[in-house]
Amino acid sequence: MSDKPKFEVIDRRKMKAQEEQTSPTTTEAKETPSQPEEKSAGPQLVVNESGQGSATKLEAEAAGQELERELEGELPPAPTAEESSQQKAAYEASSQRLEDVIRAQNPAMDKQPPVGFEHLVQQFYVSAMIQMGAGTQEGQRPRVDILGARTTIDLLGVLAEKTKGNLTEGEQRVLDSVLFETRMAFLELTSMISVQGVAPPPPQPKGKR
């Protein structure tokens, strides 16, 4: 349909051999004081400077559960159906006024299609690929946020689980394809990191916050 977002999911199963021949990607190993600094076109692994990147999975889950409990205690009562309906109508009217202003200043601009499920999946896909180094300008070293990419891919997994049985055939195909391709890209990248011997971030000293 013409109102669906147009974005391409690259089938890495078919393109893998060609990518290895034309764009060999290396991951920069963590330097030690005894090694001279070398320029590399490979991706630069970005680690959360706050130290959260070194937290174990159990610690992250515990922190998430604690945050959820705090939010539940702070959240106000859920809005009534009437309140939600009135707010939705006001939001749509405000959004339409904004679009009218923009179109008045840009007469040649096409009418924006309504946001659909495919747009949501597209946002996750683009975010995950950028976090894994895609879209880097030529001549620059990619910055890889591998932990951020993992979180984005996990969110896609949550979306797939929570929408199971409620999607159209086309929506399910898009979600399955994007989830498969992002997971495959993640596996390829983490395999390269393991091969190159990138050291994990140093553990945080106990008692230091």
For the record, give the distance between the C-alpha atoms at the N and C termini, rounded to a whole number. 53 Å
- Overall tally of structural domains: 2
Whole-number radius of gyration? 22 Å
- What's the count of strands? 2
Helix content: 40-55%
* Mean pLDDT reading: 76
Number of helices: 6
Q: Biggest β-sheet: count, sense, barrel?
A: 2 strands, parallel
The proportion of strand residues reads under 5%
Q: Give the spatial strand order of the biggest sheet.
A: 1-2
Structural class: mainly alpha
What's the overall geometry?
Answer: extended
Report on this model:
With 209 residues, the protein is mostly helical. It has two domains: 13-28 and 42-69 and 115-196, no CATH class; 76-112. The chain has six helices and two strands, in the order H-E-H-H-H-E-H-H. Strands 1-2 form a two-stranded parallel ribbon. Helix 4 (117-131) runs antiparallel to helix 5 (146-162) and helix 4 (117-131) runs parallel beside helix 6 (169-196). The chain is extended. The relative contact order is 0.16.
Architecture blueprint of SSEs:
Elements: H1 12-22, E1 44-45, H2 57-74, H3 81-105, H4 117-131, E2 143-144, H5 146-162, H6 169-196
Parallel strand pairs: 1-2
Helix pairs in contact: 4-5, 4-6, 5-6
Keywords:
two-stranded parallel ribbon, 2 domains, 2 strands, 209 residues, 6 helices, single chain, mainly alpha
